[in-house]
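User: I'm writing a tutorial on reading structure tokens. Could you give me a worked example: one chain, its sequence, then its tokens, then a sentence or two explaining what the tokens reveal?
Assistant: Sure. Here is the example chain.
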Amino acid sequence: MISRERNEGDGVGRGAYGAAFPRVGDALTLYAWRVPAFHLVRAAAAVGVSGTTVTLVEAVLSALVFALFWNAQYWIGLIVALGVTLLSVATLMLERAGGHSLWGKRFRQVVEMIPPPFWWWAWEHGLAAAGHPLAPVYATMILWVVVGGYVSDRVIEGLSLQRFGGMSIHDWRPMDSRFRLVAAGRNANLAILTGPLPFNRPDLGLELIAWWTLIGLIFHSVRLAQLTERQARREKIASWLDR
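And here are its predicted structure tokens:
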């Protein structure tokens, strides 16, 4: 838990913040947002803003991202989406500081998990206005892979937590944690979508997400099968982070 004691005038101490920060996550969270999120958390704690309030702002911005993508306002939508990802880190850290009720924690989880599939749907819808529509059948296939893969990955994560004593599928071996840096998900997908935009190919970004989602789903399915097989042989299963 992050201490609320002041540290050199800060509402949240850097040392406690660093200790509470996730050790495994996507590259954007771990490397780009660590410092900005600290300042945001410190400012929120200093003025008494709760994590639930920040989550509410995150929810409103998530809805705005959907509307912008739906209308092919891709660049503006991506900028707002980056703001959502930063707020997501801040709300997690505020939660660890004790700034969330149980209801607030559930609200944060819903706001983080539900919007992304709708973002990808909105992105596909906006392709027509952007001048790069996908054929209807092909668009349906792409969305099934992207959204279905996203949901399947969340199911795999849940099964891992349930079956292996609360251990995340991303925490088993160093390889799993390294793959988590770039694994298909909200933040990684936003980076992939950004890549082709300077070349005016928003359709290519969505296609790349579909392929990367499929690759990630295969990887995580294999790892879950390996863990299940080891458990069946009554081998000890533990995260490399606990060693």
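What the tokens reveal: The radius of gyration is 19 Å. Residues 202-232 form the longest helix (31 residues).
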